[in-house]
Specification:
Layout (H helix, E strand, L loop, with lengths): L1 H9 L3 E4 L3 E4 L4 H25 L2 H19 L3 H19 L2 H24 L2 H20 L2 H23 L1 H24 L1
Length: 195
């Protein structure tokens, strides 16, 4: 148990609070910014390597994961979507054939998992559609083995993800969103009271 907690702490997933013990680490705007900066360099590079090195079976696996992402998004199944996205990127980095890139991606994605869960629960339908369009572009470019197109699609997806995450992590936006939800819940009651 101690080793597992040390491993989680080393990956930044928990923090050891003095006199209280381990607690789930909170992701700040700076953490998110750092994650997206690294992803915008790492993912396009891995995508280009994927096009050069992946087997036909690995391309099929990436395509299947893209389909699974679309299905989960259509069903608004956040847990399945997160699992499918992890599978999608795992397939991408495995097919890239670079163990160091895969290791770095694993560290980044373990820390970004919480951010991804929050983003998918709070993003708009337009955000979700754009995300799935980028995933589809990545898979299509992989099938064509088009290195420039897959790198561009990966970068566009990272930028879109960053935009959504930073918007959701903005304290003003969170307050406004919460106030809007409260107002929307109360609106039907006001109408009933007027009658």
């Amino acid at each position: 148990m101690r080793e597992a907690l040390r491993d989680l702490e080393a990956h930044g997933l928990i923090s050891n609070v003095p006199h209280k013990g381990p607690a789930v680490a909170m992701l700040t705007r700076n953490d998110a910014r750092d994650i997206y900066e690294v992803r915008s360099a790492l993912e396009p590079m891995a995508a280009k390597l994927f096009v050069e090195r992946a087997t036909d079976e690995q391309i099929d696996e990436l395509d299947a994961m893209a389909d699974r992402c679309r299905q989960a998004m259509a069903e608004k199944d956040v847990l399945t979507l997160i699992d499918a996205l992890e599978g999608f990127y795992r397939a991408l980095f495995t097919g890239a054939g670079n163990q160091m890139a895969a290791m770095l991606a694993g560290i980044i994605y373990s820390k970004a998992g919480l951010l991804r869960a929050v983003a998918f629960q709070r993003q708009t339908d337009v955000d979700a559609e754009r995300s799935m369009a980028h995933i589809a572009r990545i898979a299509a470019a992989a099938r064509k083995r088009d290195a420039d197109a897959i790198a561009a699609a990966c970068l566009m997806q990272v930028r879109r993800s960053r935009e959504v995450a930073m918007r959701l992590l903005d304290p003003v936006a969170r307050k406004t969103n919460t106030v809007s939800k409260i107002r929307n819940r109360m609106a039907p009651r006001r109408v009933l009271l007027r009658r």
